[in-house]
Design goal:
The protein is mostly helical and 162 residues long. It has seven helices and two strands, in the order H-H-E-E-H-H-H-H-H. The protein folds into three domains: 30 residues, no CATH class; 55 residues, no CATH class; 57 residues, no CATH class. It has a two-stranded antiparallel sheet.
Length: 162
């Protein structure tokens, strides 16, 4: 809903517009935010052509997007200091490299059991207990994991490597 439409609706209903309910429009944002949104929308979307899943933005054209919107890169580069100092954008070549991310089954199932077992000396909501019981069943019986458990296992196996 636009601001104009909101004001018209308030007028039709005979109510006073409430400041917190007035819709925000792009022009309400500072110029830097408007430019950032314009640059982001300029970047192409990446889709998995097999299953139609959205993969995110393709940042290889970010320099072109900066030029198209007259963004001074010297203003952006300070954002990539400190922990981000050595950060670089990916290139198509990065996606041609494969890495061995396998975990042997015994280790995998041991981790799955550990992260799906609640402490016995604590009381949890019934919903949480059921959720963890279902996840533990995935690890011990079916060995079929839903998306959420797969995400947890991805993080847990990475932490196991540290």
């Amino acid at each position: 809903m636009t601001k104009q439409r909101y004001f018209e609706m308030c007028e039709m209903m005979g109510t006073t517009p409430i400041e917190d309910e007035i819709p925000i429009e792009l022009e309400d944002f500072p110029d830097t935010i408007q430019t950032a949104l314009a640059v982001y929308s300029f970047l192409r979307d990446d889709w998995d052509s097999v299953n139609g899943e959205y993969l995110g933005k393709i940042f290889t054209d970010v320099d072109l997007a900066f030029r198209a919107h007259y963004v001074d890169k010297t203003l952006v580069e300070p954002l990539f200091q400190g922990a981000w100092k050595n950060f670089r954008f990916s290139t198509p070549e990065d996606f041609k490299t494969t890495f061995n991310t396998k975990v042997d089954e015994k280790t995998f199932l041991s981790i799955a059991d550990k992260i799906s077992t609640l402490p016995k000396d604590k009381k949890f909501l019934n919903k949480i207990e059921r959720l963890f019981a279902d996840r533990n069943k995935m690890a011990k019986e079916s060995k079929v994991f839903d998306w959420a458990m797969a995400e947890l296992m991805a993080y847990a196996t990475l932490m196991n490597d540290i």
